[in-house]
Amino acid sequence: TWLTTLQYVADYAHEFGMTNGDYVWVLSGNIDPATVAYHASTNANISKLVRGMSLIRPIDGFSYLPLFGDESDGFLESWQAQNASFVDRVNALHPINNDTENPGYFQGSATYFQDHLPEHGAGFMYDAVMAQAIGRCQQQEQQRDSKG
User: Fold this and answer.
1) Integer angstrom CA distances of residue 57 from 20, 33, 45, 65, 88
2) Which helix (H) or strand (E) segment is 50 a member of?
3) Nearest CA to 63 among 8, 119, 108?
4) What does 90-135 look like in DSSP terms, one character per residue?
5) 54 with 81: CB under 8 angstroms?
6) Fewest Cβ atoms nearer than 10 Å: which of 10, 63, 121, 141?
7) Exposed, middle or buried by CB within 10 Å (0-12, 13-18, 19+), for 65?
8) Residue 54: φ, ψ to 5°
């Protein structure tokens, strides 16, 4: 987990003299600031590491727009527009039954995308994958054009 990783980083950073204020530590991902604060109050190495630390957290539009009375989010709308035939195609591509031998894998229900919100950061992951794909397509097009 991220907390175990934080503990390792804090311990090694302390061991190598990197918690003396000369370094800036940046954490990112789905990290809970309250949990970090609690562990910093009970663990000297984490406490030293997080002094002056920066925390970068992605916040998808579907997470914060409703707070401002705006219910529209293109990513969430696309997510919820997926239908049973899409779920069937995804299940067929990854045919693992719901069982204890494969924890974390499951077969989605026909209404999965209407019943579940995307994971936090999913909109950014989609954007990152699409940016890579578009960039690769543009690179191939440029290479083809340069060969004439």
Assistant:
1) 25, 10, 23, 16, 33
2) helix 44-50
3) 119
4) HHHHS---SSTTSTT--PPPTTHHHHSPPPTTHHHHHHHHHHHHHH
5) no
6) 141
7) middle
8) -110, 140
Please, which residues bridge with residue 55 across strands? 27
Please enumerate in sequence order all residues whose Cβ is within 8 A of that of 109, keeping only pairs 6 or more positions apart, or say none.
87, 115
H helices, E strands: number in the chain: 8, 2
d(CA 66, CA 89): 31
- In percent, the amount of the chain with pLDDT more than 90 equals 31
At 59, is the secondary structure helix, strand, or coil?
coil
What is this structure's pTM? 0.52
Give the whole-angstrom CA distance, residue 34 versus residue 42: 13
* The token pair that represents 55 in the structure block: 């925390």
- pLDDT tens digits for range 51-89: 878 888 777 888 777 777 777 888 888 999 999 999 999
CA torsion sign for 115, 119, 120, 121 is: negative
Residue 117, token pair as written in the block: 């919100």
